[in-house]
Structure formats: structure tokens, C-alpha cells
Design a protein that fits this description.
Elements: H1 3-16, H2 46-58, H3 67-83, E1 86-95, E2 101-111, E3 118-124, H4 145-161, E4 171-177, H5 195-202, E5 213-218, E6 227-230, H6 231-236, H7 241-250, E7 257-263, H8 268-276, E8 280-284, H9 310-326
Parallel strand pairs: 3-4, 3-5, 5-8, 6-7
Antiparallel strand pairs: 1-2, 2-4
Helix pairs in contact: 2-4, 2-9, 4-9, 5-8, 7-9
The structure holds zinc ion (ZN).
Zinc ion is lined by residues 1, 128, 147, 181, 299.
């Protein structure tokens, strides 16, 4: 989510299409369709998910090294400990592109840790320390309601509901990455974003950890959000994408989960695939009306609770629960 990302988005849009309209992409479902359980009741409380987003925003900006960051970390840790079978934390330090030494706290919550079949669900929980896409107060941190809190809020509510699905044969891991968004928007510094996921991917919380596939949520709360196929996901996770987009379509959420390629983004999933060799798709907001292709709120002070719609959180959360319920 920087200029290099924007460059990639533009490049891919330019390379793959003849115009700004996203190309339609056919994703072939090569997964097995047999042996799927009939529809089960999926509980996902959108009010609860919304409150989890708001609770994070109420801590103020969650910029690594600040009080809001530490308070939010303790809040997330206590929530995960109350629900998951095993919770791991990774506390390390990193130096940002602008030479600030920061604490980096990753949180990892395992459900059914002994199961060998596993799904990884992840999001970043930190927020950007400057509003460099805004027109004023650009040196002030953003609230990151959508860019940070939305994915975490959805996953906190998913964590509430996982055990009701009774999938004792399936392991689910929820990972919250720190320090995703303190990156160099000029693109001059390589790999300056995603410091928490880079660390986790190179230093897994337990040896030989792996998952069949993963789903990264980033900016999944905007009103009328639109999610397309992110290009690195399409290249490396094409076998699993239909599980998610198919679940969304079956639930009637194809107004959010659309059939087009949106360009490549150097998000946390990119580093997980590179270093931990786990295929992870990125579900991330797409706005055809902005140059960045993210929403107008992106990296501005407008990324507050007004950028969040419960209906979008609900569509994403219920889709994830259906993926967990159906995956064999
Ligand atoms: Zn961001």
C-alpha cells in the first residue's frame, strides 16, 4: 500500500487490460466438491464485529511504540486467550525505513492445534503513523478503522464463533501482524512495509508450522466494498480462491466478492508466501474511482468509524465461517 504497490497496480492494470475497467477473470475450481456438509447455521454477529472495530479505534492510533498500541495489544491478547486453545505472542523489535526502532508484537491464536489440516486467517493490527494521503495534518497518525481494525474486528468475531462449527478435525489459526503500515510510500526502501509478517514468516511461532492455505483481510469494512482477485493470490493461490468466492456467492455476497483481477499488492500475504511457503490470498478493498484503487479514506484522517459498514463486516465474516464449515 505504497507507491510501489500503486505502481504494481497500475502496471498490472495497464498490462492486463485495455482500460481502467477491471478484466473479468475465470477462476477454475479444481477442488473436490463431494462430501460437503449441507448448509449449517452460521452465526456471525455484525454488531459484535463492529464493536470490536470500534474498541480498537477507541484506543486511538495503534502506532508501534505508543500507549494506544500497547493498550490494544493487551486487549487483543486477552480476547484471544479467552477463546483459543493456544495463544502465542512474538515480541521483537525492528527498525523502520525512517530509522525508528520500534517494538513489534505479533499475536497467534490456534484452534485445534493438533489437527494437521489447517487454515490460516490473518490481518494487521497496527496503524499508519502518518496521514500522507491526506491534504492536512499529514504528519499525524491515522485512526485506521478500516486499514487495520476492520480485518481484526471480523476475525475477533470469527474467533467467537469457530467452536460452534464443531470442526474438531480442522485447525484454524488467527494471526494478527504488527508493523504492516510503517512503510516508505516513496517506494525508495525495499520491503519497508509488513515488518511483523516478515518476522513471523522467517521465525514461525512453532517449528514446522504450516497451513493448507491462508486468507489475509485488509480493509474489509468499507460501505459497498468490492473485492477482486489480487494478482499474487491469483498466481499462487488459485486452487483455494474458489472456496472463498464460491462461499460468498452461495451466501449472496457476490455484490462484494467480484470476478475481476485487481492488480498485485505487496501486503502481508506476499511475505508469508515468500518466506513461509504457505499460499495466502489477500481480500482487500478495491475502489475503481481513486488513483490508488483503495478507498478515499485510505491513509487519511477519514479512516474513522464512518469508513465502516456492519453489512460489509458481516459479508466477510460469514463467508469465512462458511469456508471453515465446508473445507474438507
Ligand atoms: Zn495502510
Amino acid at each position: 500500500m505504497n507507491f510501489s504497490k500503486l505502481f504494481l497496480v497500475s502496471l498490472l492494470t495497464f498490462a492486463c487490460n485495455n482500460g481502467p475497467k477491471p478484466a473479468s477473470v475465470e477462476v477454475v475450481d479444481t477442488t473436490r466438491n463431494e462430501d460437503k456438509k449441507p448448509n449449517i447455521h452460521l452465526d456471525f454477529n455484525e454488531d459484535s464485529a463492529y464493536q470490536y472495530v470500534k474498541a480498537q479505534v477507541d484506543f486511538g492510533p495503534r502506532v508501534p511504540g505508543t500507549k494506544g498500541h500497547l493498550n490494544c495489544y493487551n486487549y487483543l491478547l486477552s480476547h484471544l486467550k479467552s477463546l483459543a486453545d493456544t495463544v502465542y505472542t512474538q515480541n521483537t523489535r525492528a527498525t523502520t525505513f525512517n530509522k525508528v526502532n520500534i517494538p513489534v508484537y505479533n499475536l497467534i491464536a490456534e484452534f485445534n492445534p493438533k489437527a494437521s489440516k489447517r487454515i490460516l486467517l490473518c490481518a494487521h493490527w497496527d496503524t499508519r503513523p502518518f496521514a500522507d494521503e491526506d491534504t492536512k495534518n499529514t504528519d499525524q497518525p491515522i485512526l485506521g478503522a478500516n486499514d487495520g481494525a476492520s480485518g481484526v474486528g471480523v476475525l475477533l468475531e470469527v474467533a467467537n464463533q469457530i467452536k460452534k462449527l464443531n470442526r474438531t478435525d480442522l485447525g484454524v489459526d488467527i494471526v494478527f501482524f504488527d508493523a504492516e503500515d510503517w512503510g516508505d510510500a516513496s517506494g525508495a526502501t525495499q520491503n519497508s512495509y509488513c515488518l511483523g509478517s516478515q518476522y513471523w514468516s522467517k521465525n514461525l511461532h512453532r517449528s514446522n508450522y504450516t497451513a493448507d492455505f491462508g486468507i489475509l483481510l485488509d480493509m474489509v469494512g468499507a460501505p459497498n466494498a468490492m473485492f477482486g482477485y489480487e494478482s499474487y493470490s491469483l498466481q499462487h493461490v488459485s486452487r483455494y480462491i474458489p472456496l472463498v468466492w464460491g462461499a460468498a456467492a452461495q451466501l449472496g455476497y457476490d455484490n462484494y466478492f467480484k470476478n475481476f483481477e485487481r492488480g498485485g499488492i505487496l501486503d502481508d500475504h506476499y511475505y508469508i508466501m515468500q518466506y513461509a511457503n504457505i499460499p495466502v490470498m489477500d481480500i482487500i478493498d478495491f475502489d475503481p474511482n481513486t488513483e490508488s484503487r483503495f478507498g478515499k479514506y485510505w491513509h487519511t484522517h477519514q479512516d474513522n468509524m464512518d469508513a465502516i459498514d456492519k453489512k460489509t463486516l458481516n459479508a466477510v465474516g460469514r463467508t469465512l465461517l462458511k469456508v471453515i464449515a465446508d473445507y474438507r
